[in-house]
Task: structure prediction
Amino acid sequence: MSDLFAPDGGWRVRILDLSGGAQDNISEEIDGFDTLMHANAFARRYVRDSVERCRVPGATSKQVLEAWFAFGEDAVVIDAGDAAWKSATELGDFVDTPASAEERDWRSLDPRRDAFDLEEDDE
Result:
């Protein structure tokens, strides 16, 4: 898998609602990632932020993990196979160690942000 050959429309990240509130647990799909590295970084930060939103003061790692599986959101890079970042590889670290603001900042990596910026410039 190479960043040089992104699928038409760019790489896509699927957001999964772990609470079961969405049909097939899919809450949205975000496309337009120019590189696989960009899509992987977005997915990682998105999940990191989701874990932190499930963290309450005084919660143990186990409680944070249980809350994330009950109320959190996972992110999956579509069609990237083994080259895709997987939450399972880092979830233990995420629940054990609170994240910094930068580690949670998926919005700065969101390709839709560029479209919003263009709309604002047109006004």
